[in-house]
Amino acid sequence: MDNHGIARVARSTRTDEQRQQDLAKIRRYRGLDDQIRASVSRDAFDNPALVDLTSRLLRLNPEYYTIWNVRRRCLISGSLSRPSAGSSPSRASPSTSPSATTSHSSAPCSSSPSATIPPAPTSPTTGPSGTIAETKTKIEKEIDDIAADAAVLKAELAFTIPLLLEHPKCYWIWKYRKWTLEQAILRLPRPLASSVWEAELALASKMLGKDRRNFHAWGYRRHLVARLESDVLLGKSLVENEFAYTTKMIEEDLSNFSAWHNRSRLMFRLLNERNADDEARAKFLDTERSMVQEALNVGPEDQSLWYYHRYLMAQAVNAEGRPSITLNLTAERKSVILEEEIEFIKDLLEDFPKIKWPYEALLVYTLALRKLSPGTKDGGEDKDPKFWLAQVRKLDAMQSGRWNDVERDIERQLAT
Is residue 331 exposed (0-12), middle (13-18) or buried (19+ Cβ within 10 Å)? Predict the structure, then answer.
């Protein structure tokens, strides 16, 4: 079974010593769980010792989502300051539930120059009625609270990194990081919160470097970008940067289905924000066609490449009236594009005659061409979708029922 290039470790028979170690680990695990439950029953969420207990238990089992909730409540009840509405430009209510909880981590946190808390402005310490001194004290307290909150949140993010590296597909670690980032929006000034969120893009890149098709990391990256683009953070588009990132990831691994998928999601916005006219859109389509053709020449057996190729052809033909990147292509131009791709695939088959995906593509494209130009039915058997369906049946006899359905659908479409 394909494991995305990550080697599986073969299991070996455990020794008595290893079994004893496992039993000791289980006893330690149960002991920590009992202590945490006892603290929760006493509502002792402001007890720093409870934070340490959650850290120790989560290092043993990060899938224990109840303990993540206890940790959230520890943060809210003790480590973090009480946010005051309107005290920070970035403070908008995050999507958290009453049961959500967090806690202060003992993990070290690194500060960046962009995230430095500015010093309090100098002001007189005395006034007619002490008002200036009181104002200064209030400002200093708010700055101290912001600095403390930033340290706690960065420490929490740092605490989860080793867990994430060891368990890159654990839902609860990713969800906890999202919650922590939302707390940054709620509690920190906008520039500082933005710097915390921007730093997370580097983490997403690191995780995707370890496993280029980790859907958790891709979804997390999309979430980061969407929030950074919102008015509560940067308030500017990152679509050009993200489109370039998909190019980089595809160049590193042509089989990166997630990168191709992300690319397809970005291209509409990319062209709209470029104010691309019909000529620019047609040129963009041709560039993407050339890119995927080069990839298919290298890996014609790669399913992800064929999916993206068919997606591009759907954009070109736009037979069902769906949103398309090329809305104003003439029927003649659509036919030319289909014919060019059909010829490209037929050439590909000369070197790779035993791969199913090219035949499926020819089946789809000849059907689309027949519907665009009914006269092509006299162009020979290789212009007949049923001819290519017969070839697919030979290579994929296991799905005969599916191909029977496809044949009936072809007859229905050609009859209308």
Answer: exposed
- φ, ψ at 124 (rounded to 5°): -60, 150
In whole angstroms, give the CA distance from residue 185 to residue 190: 7
Calpha distance 322→304 (Å, rounded): 22
Half-sphere exposure of 176 (CA within 13 A, CB side): 35
The whole-angstrom separation of Cα 356 and Cα 363 is: 11
Nearest-angstrom CA–CA distance, 248 and 194 = 24
Are the beta carbons of 74 and 54 closer than 8 angstroms?
Answer: yes
Q: pLDDT at position 323, please?
A: 76
DSSP 352: -
Spatial separation of the C-alpha atoms in residues 50 and 411, rounded to whole Å? 68
> If we measure between CA atoms, which residue out of 178, 146, 186, 156 comes closest to residue 75?
156
Q: Any idea which residue has 């049961």 for tokens?
A: 99
What is the model's pTM?
A: 0.79
Of 147, 151, 170, 149, nearest in space to 160 by CA: 170
C-alpha angle 223-327-279 in degrees, rounded to nearest 5? 95
**pLDDT tens digits, 86-145:** 444 454 434 443 344 334 443 433 434 344 444 444 444 444 555 666 666 888 888 888
**Residue range 152-162, pLDDT digits in tens:** 999 999 999 99
Q: Which two tokens stand for residue 252?
A: 């590193």
How big is the chain, counted in residues?
A: 416
Q: Are 174 and 220 in contact (CB under 8 A)?
A: yes
Cα 175 to its chain centre, rounded Å, is 12
